[in-house]
Amino acid sequence: MSNGTLIVGGSQAGLQVAVSLRQLGDTSPIILVGEEDHPPYQRPPLSKEFLAGEAELDSLAFRTPGFYADSGIDLVCGERVSGVSLSTSGPRGSGVAMTASGRELPFNRLALTVGAGARRLPLPGADLGGICYLREYNDAADLRTELSTATNVVVVGGGFIGLEVASAARALGRSVTVVEAAERLMARSVGPVVSEFYRQAHLRRGIDVRLSSAVSGFQGERGRVTGVTLSDGARLPADLVLVGVGVLPRTELAGQLGLVCDQGIVVDAHARTSDPWIVAAGDCTVQPHPITGQGRVRLESVQNAVAQAQVAAATLLGRLDNVISVPWFWSYQGDLRLQIAGLAAGYDTQVVRGDPADEQFSVLYYRHDRLLAVDAVNRPADYMAVRKALGQGASIAPDRATDPDIPLRSLIGGPAPAAPAVHRAEA
Amino acid sequence: MGTLSKVIYIDSAGREYAVDATIGDTVMATAVRNGIPGIVAECGGNCSCATCHVWVREEFAPVVGPPNDMEEDLLDMGVSERRSTSRLSCQIRITEALDGLTVEIPPEQP
């Protein structure tokens, strides 16, 4: 009997590999093993609806319990895969995985969808109670409990997670300060115009934002955090701290297998690792730019987890699909709905549509007149138009895009100028 | 567990899937949890991806109602074949009045 496919990581990408294998007609056994106690669930609402009390674990589950049995997917929860070895005598790509509890999981095909873990701050006092991270359900449940009684919330890190939590905390009436080491918010994800807009918009909503501020340590009493010290000596009172300073891709298993890693498991456009018999998908990977095919990017997004997992499943079945998928992202911070399509890295020109003061505007990014990306704030039509244009390999004339009353979809035209080389790798 | 209401999904090959849905859930979430093929719903109901597009059967269209503004923009741009009864299923909440609701799933989602 065949041992089938082993998918390590009960994540959105992991589930999608399993589902896509079945949709592509694979009937061999599938084991999906995850470290968390819960069947795969949606993570994005953890920092939004869940904190607001509008979603619970049950409503976040991707599938009913019956789905897994009906689809012949053997879901194993609460088991961490601690080791994997490949067979030297069996078919190429086959081997056996070992879990921390000693269970052996043999496989003929292996997919790594192990995700990433929250980056920790190795600072004095970082182990105090009331210092939270947010990556998985258990983190969110702890954070929500802490938020219910907190008075002064300090958020370390002005990225998506930090600002979403800051918005949720502020909506609950907490006093909130965001401390960001860089000189602007969400610097890795959006352009400076959008960063500055968000700084002002959050200030208007009563959130204190400190830029270019590094944290040097935490104070506490009786094991609980009471304050955050900044490197300039300032001290912020805090009974709850949320640290959102990015993630580290989980590369331990890939390392054991001798796979090439570079701030993530390196894969090609077909989700193949440096051992072409092993695929990887989602936040744990770095891949060629999904539109230009050049450089190396790490995309932490739902869209990428799904698209890359679909490709990985096809690859496992011996089908090398050539798919161009447009990256997209969203971050809803209270009533500020940010939607991003494309990757702006390397842009030389930007076009601002609408007035940021109205809290409804978008910024289009170009390189050599070729459309690269949009950051849209409360302008979903702009976001969708750019997503569509990029998917078609088309552009949108920058000179007319400045008029917010002309729908962008009416400006989508002709093939874009030839792609210039993108040399920069952007995480 | 809330009260149940029936939703019927018809895929592009004409296959019917009848599912017991909980009142208050969305037509999208019900489809995804039960593994109905063709409703991708990448963004998980945030009106960000337009991959949960359905065509509502004519007789239910008046009860379901028209798309909201944000949804309108996504439908306008995001779907391959927009029809008069196109909706994003993440924006349709199941009510008692929608018992037996029948939606068709387009052959492709963006």
Automatic annotation (TrEMBL), chain B:
Entry keyword Transport: no
Keywords: 2Fe-2S, Iron, Iron-sulfur, Metal-binding
Gene Ontology terms for molecular function: 2 iron, 2 sulfur cluster binding; electron transfer activity; metal ion binding
Domain 2Fe-2S ferredoxin-type per the UniProt entry, residue ranges: 6-109
Cofactors: [2Fe-2S] cluster
Alphabetized PROSITE patterns for the sequence: 2FE2S_FER_2
Record-linked InterPro entries: 2Fe-2S_ferredoxin-like_sf, 2Fe-2S_ferredoxin-type, Adrenodoxin-like, Beta-grasp_dom_sf
One of the GO biological process terms: P450-containing electron transport chain
TM regions (residue ranges): none
Pfam family, one: Fer2
An example Gene Ontology CC term for this record: cytosol
Family: Belongs to the adrenodoxin/putidaredoxin family.
UniProt protein name: Ferredoxin
